[in-house]
Every structure is written in C-alpha cells, then in structure tokens.
C-alpha cells in the first residue's frame, strides 16, 4: 500500500517533468494562461497550453467563418498585452471590422497577404522567431509534418503561440500539433421567444490535445468570453433538478 | 528623353553692377578692361546696347560718339556670379551647368510637370530672373546645343517641341552653331547665311570644305552626337565600390564584401546624420554579367548588423558563376536620422516595436512591401470602404472603430448573386439558394440600410440582413434597391461566425 503511494507520487512527479520538457511551455504564473472558461478542464494542469501550434480544421465557408470566430475569440484571450499579432494568409476572407465582435482591436493585427503558398511557412516561421509578437495566425490548408516540427522548434525558443487555420485540408494526418480543433456552427443562442439572431454558438470538437482529454462542447461567445452553450446548460439544469 | 533649357544672360556684368548701385538702372554704361595697351569695352548695359555700342569696341571710340558715356572697371569675379546663379537654379532642377561666359544650361528632364508643363516652367524661371534684375533670354529643346542656339538667335517661340530642333535650326544663322570665326566667314562668303542651306549637304563635302567641327556641331544640335553637361555641383550619390583582386565565388566571400561596403556607407551616413531606406548591391562578374539585389527598410537605418542581416537573406539569389570582380553598393534613398534618434533606437532594441519593424524589414525583402499591411477604420458605412489599408506599422487610428455595427467575420471579395423567395417586401427572405444549395432561413435580423455615398459613386442602396439557416450557418445578405421602383436583387456578402 505504502509502496503504491510512493509509486504514484513518483509517477506524478515524472509526469510533470515530461510535461514541461515535452515542448509544452508552461509559464510559472498561471495568470499568464488564457482563460478559456469551460474548456480549461480538458487541458493538462487545467490551463490552456497556448504556447504551441493549434490546428483548426474547416471544410466549407460556414464552418470556416465559425472557425475564424472561434480563433478570434481565442486570440482575444491571448492578446492581453500591448503586443501585436500577425495574420498570414493567401486567400484571406477575414474582414477586419468583424474582429471587433470578439474584443480585438483590428489595427493591432498586421496582415500579410501572400500571392502563393510557397512563402507561407517561411513567413510564419520568421514571425514565430520574433518574441515581440503576441501570436501568429496562418491560414494554410496543408502542412508537412516536418514543417510543423520546425514551427514547434521556433515556438519553443520564442514562446509565441501559433494558430493554423486549415481550410479544406487534403488529409488530416497525425501531426505534432499541440491541439487540433474542429468548429461547426449551430443555431445561435437567443432568449426564449425573442426574434432575431443571437450570440454565435458552435459545436467545438477538441480532436487532439497533448497530455489532455479530447472533448466536445457546445460553446457560445457572449460578446466578452466563451460560455457553455444551450444544451449543456439544460443538461446541467436537469442534473440540478434531479439532484434537487 | 532628355530636355534642356539654356538661359542666356545678355548683360550679366552690367546687370550685376546695376543691382549693386540702383542709380545705374536704365542708364547706358559700359564695363571696360585694359587689353593690349588700350581700354576695351567688355560688356554693355541694355541701354548702351540700344545706342549701338558693342562689346569689343575701344572705349575711346565710343566716347568720341557719346562723350558722356559712363564706364566702370570690369569685376573679374564674374564666373563666381554665374556659379551662384547656377546654384540658385537648383530649385528648378538638380542638374545645372555653366555654359560659356554668360549662360547656364539646365537639365530639366522630368522636372517640368511639377510646374504644370514646360511653358509654365519656362515662364516661372524667366520671370523670376527678370524680377531679380537680369536681362535673360532662354529656350527649351531636346539638345543643349539647340537650346543654346535658340536662346541666342531664335526668333520664334523659345519652347521647342520634342524632335523639333532640326526645323527650327534651318532659319538660324551659322553663328548659332558656335563655330569658329574663320569658318563662319567662309560660310557667309559662299552665301550660306542660314543653317538650313548647308545642313543637308553630304557629310564628306562639309568636312572637306569646312572641317570636322561643322559636322560635330551639327550632330550635337540635332542630337545625333552626345554632349556632356558638367554640373556645378556634381551629385554625390551614396555609392561605395569594392574591387576584388581575385574573383569572389563563395557565399562567405560575398557576405564579407557586403559587410565591408556597408561599413563604408554607414560611416558616411553617420557623419551626415542620415539613414538609408533602400540599398542596392550590384555585382560585376568576370564574364561581364551583372547581378543585382536590393533591400528596403521601414524606417531609416544605419545599423550595420541589421543591414547585413537583410542582405544575408538575399545572398543565395546572387549567381557568382565564374566569380565577381567588383561590388558596388548604392543607397538610392536616404532619409534624415539624427544621432539622438539612433540612440533611442538602440535603447529600444529590447523594446517590442523595434523588433517588429526589423521582422517586417526582413519579410519585406523577400515577399515585397505590398504584401504587408494593417487596417485602420475610415468614416464610411459602405463595407468596402469602411477600412483603409496602411503600410505603416506605427500609424494610429485617426477615428475609433465603430462600436455597435455588426459586421461579419468573413467577407466575400465581391457580393455574389443569390436566388431568394421573400414573402413580403422589406422582409428578410424565407429561403435563398447559393451555389445550388437551398438554405431555409430560421432567424433573421435587420434590415440595416446602407446608402451608397453619392459624392463618391452613384448606384442603389443596400439593405443588409443577418440571417441564420436551419443548419446554424449565419450569413450577411443584402437587397439592392427598393421594391416597386427597381427590380430588387439579392446578394450574399459575408459569413458570420
């Protein structure tokens, strides 16, 4: 019994060491980590390992818009300081004023619109090496695992998070990214009986998270932060009513 | 194409004296100097010229006709005066030269449009010189010699159209070619009193009878032979050269050469308190080939490390082939950068803005400046005009971003036509067809009417609706035009998150 307790302790300590040496950069202050609200539980140590590569996969224009929205929300959590962010893309559809909904001042983002995808990874890597940036967003459908590894190495040095929007990828292979997400839009959230379109709501699937638990949530953006969406709230209420 | 302007100061020395002593204005007077034991008139004022007194006359002869003629000693520093006038002309063109004892030549290529055309440019220079008290004649032509000739002997309009010098020269006397006196005498003796009479003779005949000089002068007037303009202040470009004893073929060698050249340029920039915005490296290969690379910066820089890093990115585009024997580094664009600014810049190396600027310089040198931009709000409601692109990293927004407008996160490059069925006019559609797919509208918000700004362009207004279909996709649709007046058309313009 005593032995197993010791063993558990050793395992826990080793896990911590693996986490901190496995490419995931943890800062000593937990305040630094962006607060993702209900999603926090899925991540190792209950904080989002934002200093890494994050893939977002979308397959059509509607999901791409939802993904852009979710990424913008995430970016607003990351861009708390005065730093700027870089948005690299080839066929950009993002409309800068639309970022205002997600609490981002659009002029704090430097847009780099490339003519071809050839220079994309070089640009993203160069940007990731510059630790004066808050984050780098790249819109690239396909990325070679070796290229992603290069980005990961750059991040380990500079600590700049990298969000990759993969719109219509040819295949979703198993890459070394820190997290992989898929966002699909669902009916917006509006108080019962009121007309009009409400807060955007998405089905957020966390397909992969290193050292964490993948999951599936219904999330909404209430203009300030992420909140649990309608069905989950109902389920919670159901639980309370049952418990009550 | 080159354009030149010749300015002839007809009474330069006399005008100068009249400027110094205003009492002499409108007076006939002459300037004299001793020559071979006699006092000879060197230059005359305009009024003296009208009396028929010519430079070169002996003073005693002139005084015999006009006993009360005023005369003064010639000031030997006339060249200096002409040089200072040439420098004054810098406000009109960067290349000005002295031509003969009493003329200026200006290279006006590419300068005249700033004054609204050659006529206005010409007027501007002549009236300003005349207001300054100088009697001038001037002309504009394709060649320096033609401008010189028309300024002195021309009787027609002094601005000669491009290519028109041959026609104008026909009517001018042979003196307009600036030939030596014996040649002119011989021409006149043969009755060739106009250039047009001998201009078309075969070159061999002209050479045999009048010498090579006639052909040369004719060639320079017509533009078939080049003529060199010696500028008063030669432009001093930021150029450094590095010849190599052995041809350089390796990347480290090129890197070393770049560093050396940059060191020289940075030293000069340091002395002149300037920083470069653009630098070009030209490599001359042993086989005669040329290799060129260029870098640009977002702000004036004379930091050696930063500049050499920018060039390092370009080294692999240089093909040394058999070897490079001469490196030339130019800085075509420089801007003021005071020492204090630079010091701040150094202190700021740990600062973030500077790191971002450096990063963008590096990116720009590879992907071009056009790819990098930021967006600032503009005071327009029309979505396409509501943002303004800027390439400046530090520019702050002049107006705040609009607070309560709902804008999609993803906007189409141009609105796309859709088929709709709308139950009642001025209501959002029940369903719409986009790319062959039927979307049933479940929720909708709107309309938000946006008028086309009539002072910018004409057209119909748009009524924007935010709609959601049964699958949860959110769209930004608009109807163009009113019901009733026009046949309304529906478009999709963006996607909401």
Automatic annotation (TrEMBL), chain A:
<dbReference type="InterPro" id="IPR027417">
    <property type="entry name" value="P-loop_NTPase"/>
</dbReference>
<protein>
    <submittedName>
        <fullName>Error-prone repair protein ImuA</fullName>
    </submittedName>
</protein>
Automatic annotation (TrEMBL), chain B:
<feature type="domain" description="UmuC">
    <location>
        <begin position="8"/>
        <end position="150"/>
    </location>
</feature>
<keyword id="KW-0227">DNA damage</keyword>
<dbReference type="InterPro" id="IPR043502">
    <property type="entry name" value="DNA/RNA_pol_sf"/>
</dbReference>
<dbReference type="InterPro" id="IPR001126">
    <property type="entry name" value="UmuC"/>
</dbReference>
<dbReference type="GO" id="GO:0006281">
    <property type="term" value="P:DNA repair"/>
</dbReference>
<dbReference type="Pfam" id="PF00817">
    <property type="entry name" value="IMS"/>
</dbReference>
<dbReference type="InterPro" id="IPR050356">
    <property type="entry name" value="SulA_CellDiv_inhibitor"/>
</dbReference>
<protein>
    <submittedName>
        <fullName>DNA polymerase Y family protein</fullName>
    </submittedName>
</protein>
